[in-house]
Fold:
Amino acid sequence: QALASIKQRIQTSQTRAVLAVNAELLNLYWDIGRQLDAWQRERAWGSAVVEQMALDLQDSYPGGARQDVVA
Structure:
């Protein structure tokens, strides 16, 4: 009983932590997308600029930066 209760608390906290991280990343990517869109309009950037920026970000943050920025 006691061990099961502790395990449940751990699992619940882990789930909350994952959801909090996902929400934060979603907000970050949404904000980055808005900023890139504004810069494209203000600075007359073509899609190649954003594509290159995504490749540069991928070098610094491997594992999905290009897909997250371009998609």
About this structure: The chain has a mean pLDDT of 87.
